Amino acid sequence: MVALSEADSKLLSRLLRQDYYSTKSQNDLGVKGLKTAKAIKKSPRTLNDTEILEAITQYNNGTLIKVICREYGCCRGYLAKLLKAHGVKIVRRSRLQKEKVQRVIRLHATGLSSRSIEAQIGIGYKSVQRIVRNAE
Q1: DSSP E strands: which ranges in the chain?
Q2: What are 16-32's pLDDT values in tens digits?
Q3: Which of 25, 80, 99, 116 is 20 to 30 A from 57, alpha carbon to alpha carbon?
Q4: Is there a contact between 120 and 107 (Cβ–Cβ < 8 Å)?
Q5: 40: alpha, beta or left, given left = phi > 0 and alpha = psi -120 to 50?
Q6: CB atoms within 10 A of CB 68
């Protein structure tokens, strides 16, 4: 731990009291040549018409919104608004692959318990139970 002089301590407390998003320079506080951090507002990347149509097609083909956002560099909320504005119904998609879901159902039909299916496939037993319940 470092001991501060009384002058440094006062300066530090003034700096800490100053609003982080203030645009005032620290020269007003007695520090020369430094400026306070400004709020960085990143505007969301907007998609043009062709990118919107491609995103709609990808979503309708089963691609997750998160994956589409990563590809186009936009946020999830923005893309969801665009999809809704273009009449696309947003549905909750399973992160599990269809093959895994089908395998869980097959293994359950053979009489295996949720815990043994969990060990074989590598998903939680609660997920196994949910898949089986939804399949019935």
Answers
A1: none
A2: 665 444 544 444 445 55
A3: 99
A4: yes
A5: beta
A6: 20
